[in-house]
């Protein structure tokens, strides 16, 4: 089913994959409709929702919105399908429970005007846990208010937090088509996003505005120890090792991602798989906290994860990445 957009010549296509987010999607779309920059279309891909998500979107009456329903195939397939339906040259991604400030699209438009030949455009973002907001920090990026420019080394600047986060990113459609979009075979840990950003950053400049205009709403703590990681497919980091020979910072970036995946496996009690990731890491790629954590057993990691969760109640955000 679809509702056709009637607005003419939009600049951006806002791609929103939707799966069982009935309690959040109206607020998310309202924030898009309230953007200061208004030249866009919204493409919602209802990825086989089983709750009232589709009804909620259908009740938002605005001719900027197109709705497509598909069988449930995952977020990558939904995004790729949305790109195939887009009428514009620039794809802006937004998950159905995340938030934008009113100047988000305006900042992306300014980045595009300033740097028209990039493969990836990103803005600053923050993580929100309950009422607490934690702005992401980036390695070797100026802290000047509303700084924008080309990131000299995407991988070096993404050591603490990735420069690109999906709900704060825009990609030219031509780049997505050239690189065949999101890898639909990756099904765990936002690896489909990381994989695409690596492929783009290896080939194209990345533009960034450090002004925080997107919010990642974490509605509940991810109980990693209960996650069935054995039923999911992580990103294949090894396929980028050959590129790391000419990009030393990429090796560090890959190893930090190996650390993250290995910790998830160890928290889940899958020690052999955890070790298979840890053994490929150059210890020099990790900071002291990360080197300490890969030596801890499952029970210790669970206790530390619980401690991290509870400290956030006092706005103390401990992270192994900084």
UniProtKB/TrEMBL annotation:
Pfam families: Glycos_transf_2. Coiled coil: none annotated. Residues 13-137 form the Glycosyltransferase 2-like domain. This is Glycosyltransferase family 2 protein. It comes from Bizionia hallyeonensis.
């Amino acid at each position: 089913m679809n509702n056709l957009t009637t607005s003419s010549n939009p600049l951006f296509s806002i791609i929103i994959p939707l799966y069982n987010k009935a309690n959040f999607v109206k607020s998310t779309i309202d924030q898009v409709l309230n953007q200061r920059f208004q030249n866009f279309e919204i493409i919602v891909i209802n990825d086989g929702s089983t709750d009232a998500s589709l009804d909620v979107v259908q009740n938002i009456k605005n001719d900027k919105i197109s709705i497509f329903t598909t069988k449930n195939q995952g977020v990558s397939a939904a995004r790729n399908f949305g790109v195939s339906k887009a009428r514009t040259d620039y794809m802006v991604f937004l998950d159905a429970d995340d938030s934008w400030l009113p100047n988000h699209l305006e900042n992306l438009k300014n980045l595009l005007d300033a740097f028209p030949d990039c493969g990836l455009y990103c803005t600053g973002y923050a993580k929100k846990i309950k009422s607490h907001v934690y702005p992401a920090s980036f390695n070797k990026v100026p802290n000047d208010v509303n700084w924008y420019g080309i990131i000299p080394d995407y991988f070096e600047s993404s050591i603490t937090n990735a420069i690109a986060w999906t709900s704060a990113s825009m990609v030219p459609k031509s780049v997505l088509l050239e690189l065949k979009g999101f890898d639909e075979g990756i099904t765990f840990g936002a690896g489909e996003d990381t994989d695409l950003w690596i492929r783009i950053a290896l080939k194209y400049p990345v533009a960034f505005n450090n002004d925080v205009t997107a919010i990642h709403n974490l509605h509940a703590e991810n109980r990693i120890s209960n996650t069935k990681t054995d039923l999911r497919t992580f990103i294949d980091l090894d396929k980028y090792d050959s590129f790391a020979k000419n990009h030393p910072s990429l090796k560090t970036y890959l190893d930090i991602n190996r650390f993250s995946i290995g910790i998830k496996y160890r928290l889940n009690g899958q020690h052999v798989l955890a070790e298979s990731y840890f053994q490929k890491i150059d210890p020099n790629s990790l900071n002291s906290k990360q080197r300490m954590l890969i030596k801890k057993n499952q029970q210790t990691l669970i206790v530390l994860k619980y401690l991290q969760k509870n400290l956030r109640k006092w706005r103390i955000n401990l992270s192994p990445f900084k």
